[in-house]
Amino acid sequence: MSLVTLAAIYFTLWWVVLFAVLPFGVRRDEDPQKGNDRGAPVFPDLKRKFIWTSIISAVILALVWAVFHFGLIDYDRLFDPPGNAPS
């Protein structure tokens, strides 16, 4: 796998994991001020969530790399059309 492919996978994974991590630890304001949304978090703690997102994405990327590097899934045959098995 090239570095460009790994970077694209990491970028996509990072955003997917971010949206999965965002709801963790969110507490909403029970008495919001006028003009504030009732569901808005009191303290979103985005820095910590970005760090965890980066760590989780890196672990998943390492697993994906290992699967292809050690041949558990053949990267060359992954996108072959069905029925084109080598003879």
What would a concise description of this structure say?
With 87 residues, this protein is mainly alpha-helical. The chain has 2 helices and no strands. The radius of gyration is 20 Å and the shape is elongated.
Question: What this model shows, in words?
Answer:
- The structure is a single chain.
- The mean pLDDT is 87.
- With 87 residues, the chain is an all-alpha fold.
- It is 49% helix and 0% strand.
- Helix 1 (3-21) crosses helix 2 (46-69).
- The chain has helices spanning 3-21, 46-69.
- The chain is built from 2 helices and no strands.
- The radius of gyration is 20 Å and the shape is elongated.
- The relative contact order is 0.14.
What is the rounded Rg? Answer: 20 Å
Oligomer: single chain
What proportion of the residues is helical, as a percent range?
40-55%
Low-confidence stretches: none
What order do the SSEs take from the amino end to the carboxyl end, as H and E?
A: HH
Largest sheet: none
Proportion of strand residues: under 5%
The gross shape turns out to be elongated
